[in-house]
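Changelog-linked ticket: 2,6-dihydroxybenzoic acid example.
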Amino acid sequence: MKGKIAFEEHMAIEQTLSETKNFAGESGRWDDFSGQILDLGARRLENMDATGIEFALLSLNAPGVQSILDTAEAIEVAQRGNDAIADAAVRYPDRYGGLAALPMQDPDAASAELDRCVKELGFKGAMVNGFTQKGVPDSAIYYDIPEYRTFWATVAELDVPFYLHPRMQLPSRAQNYEGHPWLMSAPWGFAVETSIHSLRLCGSGLFDDYPSLKVIIGHLGEFIPHALWRIDARMRFSPRGYRGTRPLGEIFLENFLVTTSGFFNDPAFRNTLEVMGTDRLFFSADYPFESMQDAAEWYDNSQVISEEDRMKIGRSNAIKLFNLDLD
Ligand code: GRE
Ligand code: ZN
């Protein structure tokens, strides 16, 4: 399918590149991988052309700004990353837009940077890589806590989506993964981390205070759509500490949106589609951690997606969600 729009598509700047090295795969792949993630020019665009991806919203790699302990440095790196994305979008306005990296170490600074990115740089939303560290390595701040309500007020006011992207649990808090480093990252732990963070947001009353908020998660919903019925079923018996005024499933289906990033599989997709519906599902690839070829080959040919849905999920839903200036 031509004309696809994708928005979990990563880039890096020199300051955020090295953290990604562990994830690049076999050691021989690093040169190739670092070339891919740094490039916003011909190579990426040719790849997009070859796979029918017309437009990509770019975002800084994970954990990126969220793992910087010093707040002033986090603010500076976020600005630098966002400026690099903005440069690419100015050079190729019909191919790239931006999702803002945010210094969540300081909620007011995060609000200010999102405001700058949306109003001055034309960004379409934010992408934040899970919890934020701050001050000391063993710190993990989740955004359901009261200190972030003013930040969420800004997101609601700017009326842009917030993409909650995975990061890995901190080694100091990962005793249950001991001896199994493979389990901590993309094969499993990313989804555990991101689903817990998403469910915390749902259970905090955030969406009662700001019902228009839109949170995007990737990887077919980080296992949540599959589990949604059971969450509500069991919470009838153990709702201790839950602060939503409505069942969690209802909140999730109203406020969360899901992409296909890195999850190119018919049975899992069919389940996600059945739970989320066609309006809340979006195509994305997760380049360069995944190949655009794998994403597009599956998406374009999957027999469990009707032609009408393929166009919606691959393109028109995203145009509507981000108010894109495309037909
Ligand atoms: C990502 O950012 O999407 C990512 C990583 C590391 C491994 C896989 C992956 O940062 O998808
Ligand atoms: Zn990603």
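Closing comment: Example verified and attached. Residues 71-91 form the longest helix (21 residues). The chain has one domain: 4-322.
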